[in-house]
Design goal:
The chain is an alpha/beta fold. The chain has six helices and six strands. The chain has one domain: NAD(P)-binding Rossmann-like Domain (Rossmann fold, 3-Layer(aba) Sandwich). The chain has a six-stranded parallel sheet, with helices on both faces. Belongs to the short-chain dehydrogenases/reductases (SDR) family.
């Protein structure tokens, strides 16, 4: 833990999608401040690599595989986290998300369902499932990682932007409803962040524009 900084010693935190990108950075920051962190990913190999790195730094991080698009897996995952933290959770960071880069007219229902289930439904469901454990900690915090896409119109991100707009409204509603339970609810809406998801999006944009240009 960095000397001279405020710390999170004794706090527990759950960060979804912590094996890469923004989520990885959040896990590292919370752990460096002394928090015990639990995270998840759909990729066991990635998680194992991350856990090895975090262990070498002396961070208190545990993780397990969870497909957040699955309601049943979300339920089992929260049970695992609650048991790991003895029924008390101080921080929940709803970070996991995906983007499928297409024009609005080209999205399939499968695309729509997948983006909605991971970006919005999972964040809402996990927050509700975690509520009793956040309340039990007597100082709970929920953070939604949204996007500027939730408030600005960007090309080829109609469904992604819709999920982030819904997330922003959910943040406001839960902040109002859960204040009585000593649970703070906030949202962060970053712009473009250098991450593997953004890199892949850029590749897709270049490819799509090139194809359209030569049609």
């Amino acid at each position: 833990m960095a000397a001279g900084r405020w710390n999170l010693e004794g706090c527990t935190a759950l960060v979804t999608g912590g094996s890469r990108g923004i989520g990885y950075g959040i896990v590292e920051e919370l752990a460096s401040l002394g928090a015990s962190v639990y995270t998840c990913s759909r990729n066991q190999k990635e998680l194992n690599e991350c856990l090895t790195q975090w262990s070498s730094k002396g961070f208190k991080v545990e993780a397990s595989v969870c497909d957040l698009s699955s309601r049943s897996e979300r339920q089992e995952f929260i049970k695992t986290v609650a048991n790991h933290f003895d029924g008390k959770l101080n921080i929940l960071v709803n970070n996991a998300g995906i983007v499928i880069y297409k024009e609005a007219k080209d999205y399939t229902m499968e695309d729509y369902s997948l983006i909605m289930s991971i970006n919005f439904e999972a964040a809402y469901h996990l927050s509700v499932l975690a509520h009793p454990f956040l309340k039990a900690s007597q100082r709970g915090n929920v953070v939604f990682i949204s996007s500027i896409s939730g408030a600005s119109a960007l090309p080829y991100e109609a469904v992604y932007g819709a999920t982030k707009g819904a997330m922003d409204q959910l943040t406001r509603c839960l902040a109002f409803e859960w204040a009585k339970d000593n649970i703070r609810v906030n949202g962060v809406a970053p712009g473009v962040i250098a991450s593997s998801m953004v890199e892949m999006t850029i590749v897709n944009i270049v490819f799509t524009v090139s194809v359209e240009h030569f049609k």
